Amino acid sequence: MAKNAGKGWDPVAAWYDQLVGKKGSDYHRHVVLPAAIEMIGNVRGARVLDLCCGQGVFVPLLLDAGAKEVVGVDASPRLIDSATERFTDEPRVRMLVADACLDGDWADGSFDAAVSLMAVHDVPDLPAMCHNMAAALRPGGRFVAIFMHPCFRIPRQTHWGWDEGRKLQYRRVDRYGVDLEIPIVTHPGKGGGSETIFYHRPLGEVLTAFGAEGLAISETRELMSHRRSQAGGARSKGEHRAAREFPMFLAIAGTRLSPT
Ligand SMILES: C[S@@+](CC[C@H](N)C(=O)[O-])C[C@H]1O[C@@H](n2cnc3c(N)ncnc32)[C@H](O)[C@@H]1O
């Protein structure tokens, strides 16, 4: 494993597994998974790679959509154990412990499609992950990646604020145009209490990491949170507008170009 590969995810695996469960966290169910399954397109009969698959939350959707085989790759042995156990009776699923940023036998050009959900900001070496995603796909193979929006959702560096004069809720961005390693402490007492690292990179750097490896983006969606303030009152109009207009996640999809 590369230095920092999946750092912190194994100690918090039980917490994450419980948070996500069989059907996904609130954001998975309402926003991320529906977008991912739409954007990956037709996977009937396809071999699909789920890179940084965690405990395999996306796998059932791929199977329901008719995938011939789903291979999950993740650096956390505990999350892979959990996924393996969940799909033990499903011959179409194979789970591997591997570092997405290092070369591996799995990156063999045989996949028709590849996804990576909520992990672009968890890997220490994004160009290497994109290299391996491209290497795993056959030319023309489709990919989807969904991750926290690099412009508006940077832990501890972006916040909501209220402008009383203009009666609007704004998004404040304190830092943006540099790479940041932000330690995230998961909920102590709920099986967490350990640290993971969030790797912030500016938008151009993220998109270039994909493009540089021949992963050509043909569709981008900026996904809003489904949650709305229940508070009511004077601010609710401004809060609702902000929730509708400031994206939470960035979703990209496209195809692996043929090598020139
Ligand atoms: C936020 S979780 C997302 C998991 C899953 N895709 C989901 O949506 O629930 C991030 C995942 O990235 C994995 N990860 C982080 N760095 C990795 C690396 N270098 N190689 C493989 N997996 C990695 C972690 O182990 C963790 O499962």
Automatic annotation (TrEMBL):
Pfam families: Methyltransf_25. Keywords: Methyltransferase, Transferase. One of its GO terms (molecular function) is methyltransferase activity. InterPro entries: Methyltransf_25, SAM-dependent_MTases_sf. Residues 48-141 form the Methyltransferase domain. It comes from the Bacteria. One of its GO terms (biological process) is methylation. PANTHER family: METHYLTRANSFERASE, SLR1071 PROTEIN. This is Methyltransferase domain-containing protein. It comes from Haloferula helveola.
